[in-house]
Amino acid sequence: MIKRYLLFCAAVLISHFAMAQKVVEPKGQPDWVKPYQPFRIAGNLYYVGTYDLACYLIVTPAGNILINTGLASSVNDIKKNIKALGFKFEDTKILLTTQAHYDHLGAMAAIKEETGAKFFVDAADAEEVASGGKTDYALGGQYSSFKPVKADKLLKDKDSVVLGGTTLVMLHHPGHTKGSCSYLLNVKDDKKTYKVLIANLPSIVTEQKFKDIRSYPGIAKDYAYTINSLKHQTFDIWVASHASQFKLHEKHKPGDAYNPAAFRDEKGYKEEVKFWENEFKKKLAKE
């Protein structure tokens, strides 16, 4: 009788564990899974993502850095893109993300496991990545939306990530998620050095009133901080978490020659930040 009871308890625990680990990735947009030809943006910075989900490869003599991984199904696309550029997928040494959402972290756990790379994340998103997105204030729920990822290092605002002579500075830009972030780095080709901003723009993902989001009481303050920070960034060229946000497909067509100047677009950057500032103000006004 006792043995039967213990077996029953074990079965219940296994069932609960399986439920806790269940991953249900929400349905994405068609452009999120549409393949896209990889290309060199500037210096040692390359685009290896899908048509709209931006993933960036930074190549160094000591191995490579991959920022964002798209959806869970993006693993093979990223592999193919890295190989097509002449680099090795297994040379990935550091993994980063701009935000803890399934459309940018879906393949992170798989790529981490396959390459053995270290995953660094903004400390404020540590809980979200560990839960697979279950604890996210806007997109969280009963199940994880991506496979949970173990962080090897937690980053704070303006921390540096250094590999093979390349230094990225992480900028804490919360609001979209608690630990959304952007990156600044210098890349160099045989003609000049470019200051690059990989921007995570503060799009508003919830219809809830900010004051009603009890799991994120400082959300309005964080959005205001991020918008102000983005307004004061300086750069030579910029890109973002989604190709559509920086109008990639107007600036680059598959097969185009190497052209870093196409990504300068300070005017487009200011317009994009201003758009989200206005959306934020409209939301505040309604509340």
Automatic annotation (TrEMBL):
Gene Ontology molecular function: hydrolase activity; metal ion binding
SUPFAM superfamilies xrefs? Metallo-hydrolase/oxidoreductase (SSF56281)
Q: Keyword check for Metal-binding, yes or no.
A: yes
* Any Pfam family: Lactamase_B
Q: Tell me its cofactors.
A: Zn(2+)
- So which residues are the signal peptide here? 1-20
Q: Establish whether keyword Transit peptide is in the entry.
A: no
Q: Which residues form the Metallo-beta-lactamase domain?
A: 52-242
Keywords noted in UniProt = Hydrolase, Metal-binding, Signal, Zinc
Supply the name of the protein.
Metallo-beta-lactamase class B
The record's section on InterPro entries has: MBL_Glyoxalase_II, Metallo-B-lactamas, RibonucZ/Hydroxyglut_hydro
Q: Which organism was this protein described from?
A: Chitinophaga terrae
